[in-house]
Design goal:
The complex is a heterodimer of chains A (about 500) and B (about 575).
Chain A: H1 10-26, H2 32-48, H3 50-61, H4 65-91, E1 94-96, E2 105-113, E3 116-120, H5 128-139, E4 143-147, H6 153-166, E5 172-174, H7 179-187, E6 192-196, H8 199-211, E7 216-219, E8 225-228, H9 234-249, E9 262-266, H10 267-285, H11 301-310, H12 314-317, E10 320-322, E11 326-327, E12 332-333, E13 336-339, H13 346-349, E14 356-362, H14 368-373, E15 380-384, H15 388-397, E16 402-405, E17 419-420, E18 426-427, E19 429-430, H16 433-438, E20 440-448, H17 463-473, H18 477-484
Parallel strand pairs in A: 3-4, 3-6, 4-5, 6-7, 8-9, 8-15, 9-14, 13-14, 15-16
Antiparallel strand pairs in A: 1-2, 2-20, 7-18, 10-13, 11-12, 17-19
Helix pairs in contact in A: 2-4, 3-4, 3-6, 4-5, 9-10, 17-18
Chain B: H1 2-14, H2 22-33, H3 41-50, H4 71-86, H5 93-122, H6 126-152, E1 155-157, E2 166-174, E3 177-181, H7 189-200, E4 204-208, H8 214-227, E5 233-235, H9 240-247, E6 253-257, H10 262-266, H11 270-279, H12 288-299, E7 303-306, E8 311-315, H13 321-332, E9 344-350, H14 354-369, H15 385-396, E10 404-406, E11 410-411, E12 416-417, E13 420-423, H16 430-433, E14 440-446, H17 452-457, E15 464-468, H18 472-481, E16 486-489, E17 503-504, E18 510-511, E19 513-514, H19 517-522, E20 524-532, H20 547-558, H21 561-569
Parallel strand pairs in B: 3-4, 3-6, 4-5, 6-7, 8-9, 8-15, 9-14, 13-14, 15-16
Antiparallel strand pairs in B: 1-2, 2-20, 7-18, 10-13, 11-12, 17-19
Helix pairs in contact in B: 2-3, 4-9, 5-6, 5-7, 5-8, 6-7, 13-14, 20-21
The chains are: A alpha/beta (about 500), B alpha/beta (about 575).
Chain lengths: ~500, ~575
């Protein structure tokens, strides 16, 4: 059982946190050796429990092992390996430049851990969205509480029961539970809260954080659009459609914050595109929608009903051009394509987060910029185009967490790119060095010596001092020399 | 602090039925906030006239009634600025440069007026005002002008084999319409410096200067209107009701600089307190940072909070004492009379060394401010009657009053307090629990200097921590064991003039940082951009899933080129 305690009482939480704070204060989590040993232990956890993790993901979301490896285990492994190989470099203080006037002095920016951090993870990638931020928090030398989503109970249980066996449970704890435990946790004082989830819960998290002035990172979602420009080469079109299908129904059957929400396409190319989408869906997932093997199910009854309601509206139901069959018993919804559903329907005003794909037709593909700008800023924007001028317009005229040209979701795999939102899609970013920075405070350190004193810094004030300061701020060294020699007149 | 909150609650409960609009009484009450000696009647009228009006709206609004800046006015202001931002004009390099040049020009041409306003608000000596406000702002502006093209350039990022072939970059884009709320202690610098960052990053900006420095607030509103593009940059003057109206709006960023206490100064008016407590009833003590963050939470707005804290200065016995003491005095009293968020709040030294330190302090203080510091022109005054009362209350507490060893003189009429040093004040007194933010400096003594770490770590994390010592090992231990926004060894305050260092707090001293490129980053979103071609398609990404694909993915993830080649050729090792 270790420390991953279920349904902990209020006192239990406080005791756990006291222990974690004590550990942080002891300085142990700050050492490079501790951080590395924890990262290595995490890698061992993944390797030794691979089958159990696959099983838990199958149980919570019906995820296929290949999908689970690609989107969860692989992500965690890559991230931990990257941290391990870069940690020394990240931890090293960065020298800062100083003007001559400060001579003799030296300046540096030193990353230091924030303290005790809380990570609230989501259910859609219950392993990677939990462990990827944990890797960042450990790399930066913090002590950590992870609260996995109760909506993926098998994964939550697994994390709570395996993490104490591998990681230092005096510094890293998993606390399981639902709303009540979350509320209890949010009442405590943290040095950072890292939240992945919906914007409505994010408001609660940030309001709670305000009480203790705790910095927060909010990883939210939004309606991530695909701009599908006409591609003249048939092979490019084929690749583009494959990537859209793979990016929509691949990762957790559309239940992904950077998954495709809708596609914008020119009217005249819509039908051709839809035909190709249908063909690719069949190729990937098979003919019989009742027996699809390679696709996740809807996480739970609540979300199933939510998605079902999105397509209940007769005007929306009428716009379905492919799929639409649902299987309530198995919480399964077939890959579904809709052509031009009403723009004021819920399906076009709310984040879909499921296997429904509206195709919105435009007269001219360049109108997509206005279409996107009239909606909240998405976490990701995708555009398939070979038109360089259009690419530049998209980049400079729209705003989103990230932009990916000619592919879907792969930006998530780049450790060199910050991953995070803007506006309604959240703030703060992570991955690679950005994860380390996210859980660090960049402490500015300036070192001065006692020789060489600039007397004009000090009162009593006079005109000479004012002149001196004027020149000093301009870094006008010649002027300063002249002033000091009494040769300068103003 | 405790007593203050009680006081506020008391006002709330007694006057909760007090519903008269502050529309009529506000100008009158406002004058209570103004230090009496600096304002003649004419000036007072002028403030009453313009104090709560959005500067740009001034021209069209003549009716007294309309001048109240309420939620509707705030909403229409934000809407207008959003229109400008959406037009894309603030994004252009040219617009940003023009505005930054406008700020430079404004400072050059109106230096006298700015110095005059600072003198009115705080009796800031000219040299001090020039050094800490004018020059710093000008420096920030010049740096932004010089570096902007570099800052705006997309940053190339490496890509991995997982996305081969591809290129990646990080593009800095403006956040949108941002709100800057500034404090009264460096009312010019701390207003314009963040605005420079916001403009450099291409945002539309609303600045709300502090009403507690009314002359500077008024001047800023006038000058920014005159020198900058009013379709995208505005000043809203006012106090709690105006701030509340602004905070109701949806911003793309809120940048707040303030001290923990400043709200109390304007909270006197019962209606405002009632309103405030209604808006933010979950807070027992209305600490502004919390209020701002809670308001931001409603719209998921990112915030930067530049707060303060009790900044310690640890003094070792092996230092060049004269130099050390002069640097401490420069950072404490010659910098707005201690009313600075990075001013040394208290000193820790050894028991044996304290008497020596105090002797030199006494001597150097006299050098700086003369035999009678109350008559010195070289030190700022306390900003307001309320602040004056708070500070004297700290001094008059039992167990504190008898610890004064230097100074202690005060003059309420001129809002002056002499440089005051206290020795061995008990830890459980108000002066050792709260940020002092004034010309009082307690000295805490310890047996061994290493014990100072425990003293500092037992308090919330400060914005700055100072150490004076020649001991290299102590430097190292101090840097590694103390958490603070920034650190300066063997000097005070100077670190914030270094534009290559981020300036910002940690923990209770705030979140987010600025100065130089960090200002630009604070007001930018770092957009990740990945360019892919159509080649390099790996079938392993797509269903139907097979065990072979799982193996291939694992090998790809290992990053081992040889294994990848083998796997692709079908010769996997396992």
């Amino acid at each position: 059982m270790g420390s991953g305690v279920h349904g902990m009482e209020g006192g239990g939480v406080e005791e756990s946190l006291a222990e974690l704070r004590q550990t942080f204060r002891s300085g142990k989590t700050r050492t490079a050796s501790w951080r590395k040993s924890q990262l290595k232990a995490l890698l061992r956890l993944i390797h030794e429990n691979e089958d159990k993790i696959f099983e838990a993901l199958k149980h919570d979301l019906g995820k296929h092992a290949v999908e689970a490896y690609r989107d969860e285990l692989g992500v965690v492994e890559k991230s931990a390996n990257n941290s391990l190989s870069c940690l020394d470099e990240w931890m090293a203080p960065k020298k800062s430049k100083l003007p001559w006037l400060f001579f003799p002095a030296s300046a540096q920016v030193l990353p230091e851990p924030l303290g005790l951090v809380l990570i609230l993870s989501s259910w859609n990638f219950p392993i990677s969205m939990a462990l990827d931020p944990v890797i960042g928090a450990i790399s930066a030398g913090n002590s950590v509480v992870l609260k996995p989503s109760e909506q993926a109970p098998a994964c939550s249980y697994l994390l709570a029961h395996t993490i104490p066996l591998y990681l230092d449970s005096k510094a890293i704890k998993v606390i399981e539970g639902g709303k009540e435990i979350s509320q209890q946790l949010l009442e405590q004082k943290w040095d950072k809260i890292f939240f992945t989830g919906s914007s409505s819960v994010a408001r609660i998290v940030m309001s709670a954080a305000a009480k203790h002035l705790t910095p927060v990172t909010l990883e939210l979602g939004g309606k991530c659009p695909v701009i599908y420009d006409h591609l003249s080469s048939p092979s490019d079109t084929e690749v583009a459609v494959k990537r859209i299908v793979g990016g929509k129904w691949g990762p957790c059957n559309g239940q992904a914050c950077i998954g495709v929400d809708y596609v914008l396409v020119e009217e005249k190319y819509a039908s051709q595109m839809i035909e190709m989408l249908k063909k690719t869906i069949k190729k990937f997932y098979g003919e019989n929608p009742k027996q699809l093997q390679n696709i996740s199910r809807i996480v739970n009854e609540h979300h199933f009903q939510r998605l079902r309601n999105l397509i209940k509206d007769p005007l929306v139901a009428d716009s379905i051009v492919h799929g639409g069959s649902i299987d309530e018993e198995n919480l399964f919804i077939e890959p579904t394509i809709l052509l031009d559903p009403p723009l004021d329907a819920d399906i076009m005003t709310e984040e879909i987060f499921g296997p429904l794909l509206p195709i919105i037709t435009l007269k001219n593909i360049e109108e997509s910029i206005e279409f996107i700008n009239s909606r909240p800023k998405p976490l990701a924007l995708y555009a398939f185009t070979k038109n360089e001028a259009f690419k530049r317009r998209i980049l400079s005229e729209t705003s989103s967490g990230s932009v990916t040209f000619n592919d879907i979701m792969v930006q998530f795999l780049c450790d060199t790119l910050p991953f995070g939102g803007v506006g309604q899609s959240g703030f703060g970013s992570y991955h690679g060095k950005y994860s380390f920075d996210n859980f660090s405070h960049e402490k500015a350190v300036l070192q001065r010596y006692f020789i060489l004193e600039l007397e004009p810094r000090f009162p009593p004030w006079n005109d000479f001092k004012l002149n001196f300061i004027r020149l000093a701020y301009k870094f006008d060294y010649l002027g300063l020399m002249l002033l000091l020699l009494g040769l300068r007149r103003d | 602090m405790g007593t203050l909150s009680v006081n506020l609650l008391h006002i709330c409960s007694v006057d909760s039925g007090y519903t008269r609009s502050f529309r009529n009484q506000f100008p009158k009450k406002r004058n209570l906030l103004l230090p009496i000696p600096v304002l003649n009647k004419q000036k007072r009228l002028q403030f009453a006239h313009s104090s709560f009006v959005c500067s740009a709206a001034l021209a069209v609004m003549t009716d007294e009634e309309k001048k109240v800046f309420d939620i509707e006015s705030a909403a229409s202001l934000v809407k207008e600025l959003r229109g400008s931002f959406n037009s894309g004009k603030t994004k252009s390099y040219e617009w940003r440069i023009t505005q930054l040049k406008g700020i430079g020009k404004m400072i050059d041409e109106r230096e006298k007026e700015i110095l005059e306003a600072l003198r009115k608000d705080l009796s800031k000596p000219e040299v001090e005002a020039f050094m800490s406000e004018i020059s710093m702002t000008k420096g920030a502006c010049k740096l932004a002008l010089k570096e902007l093209s570099h800052w705006m350039k997309p940053e190339k990022a490496k890509t991995s084999i997982a996305t081969y072939p591809s290129t990646a970059e990080i593009v800095s884009e403006p956040l949108g319409v941002v709100l800057v709320i500034s404090p009264w202690n460096f009312p010019f610098l701390l207003s314009v410096d963040p605005v420079i960052g916001a403009i450099a990053a291409g945002n539309a900006v609303v600045l709300k200067p502090s009403e507690i420095a009314p002359a500077t607030s008024n001047l800023l509103s006038k000058l920014l209107e005159e020198y900058l593009d009013n379709s995208s940059i505005r000043v809203v003057e006012g106090a709690v009701p105006e701030t509340t109206a602004l905070l109701e709006q949806k911003w793309d960023k809120i940048f707040y600089t303030g001290t923990i206490r400043c709200i109390h100064l304007s909270c006197k008016e019962a209606t405002i307190v009632v309103k405030l407590s209604r808006c933010f009833s979950t807070f027992r003590s209305p600490r502004v940072g919390r209020i701002i963050m809670a308001a931001a939470a409603k719209h998921l707005t990112p915030i930067t909070l530049e707060l303060g804290g009790k900044c310690p200065a640890v003094v070792d016995s092996n230092v060049n004492l004269k130099v050390a003491v002069r640097r401490i005095i420069a950072g404490k009293w010659a910098c707005n009379a201690g009313q600075a968020c990075v001013a040394p709040d208290y000193i820790i030294t050894t028991k044996d060394f304290a008497p020596k330190l105090i002797d030199v302090m006494r001597h150097e203080l006299e050098e700086f401010f003369g035999k009678n510091p109350m008559e010195s022109e070289d030190m700022s005054r306390i900003v307001s009657v309320q602040r004056f009362k708070l500070l004297t209350k700290l001094l008059d507490e039992d167990n504190v009053a008898d610890k004064i060893i230097i100074g202690g003189q005060r003059d309420e009429n001129r809002l002056k307090i002499a440089p005051t040093i206290l020795l061995d004040v008990p830890e459980d007194t108000e002066i050792m629990r709260e940020e002092i933010f004034g010309p009082l400096l307690p000295i805490i003594t310890v047996e061994k200097l290493e014990e100072s770490f425990d003293v500092i770590n037992s308090k919330p994390k400060p914005l700055a921590a100072y150490l004076f010592s020649e001991n290299k090992q102590l430097h190292k231990d101090f840097v590694n064991n103390i958490s603070a926004g920034g650190m300066l060894i063997n000097d005070t305050i100077l670190h914030l003039t270094v534009s290559s260092l981020p300036f910002g707090g940690v923990g209770e001293s705030g979140t987010g940082s600025y100065h130089g490129k960090f200002s630009f980053d604070t007001f930018s979103h770092k957009k990740a951009v990945l360019y892919r071609g159509f080649a390099g398609e790996s079938p392993a990404r797509y269903p139907p899933y097979t065990l072979g694909k799982l193996k291939l993915l694992k090998t790809l993830n290992s990053g081992n080129i040889l294994s990848i080649l083998l796997a692709l050729l079908g010769f996997s090792k396992d």
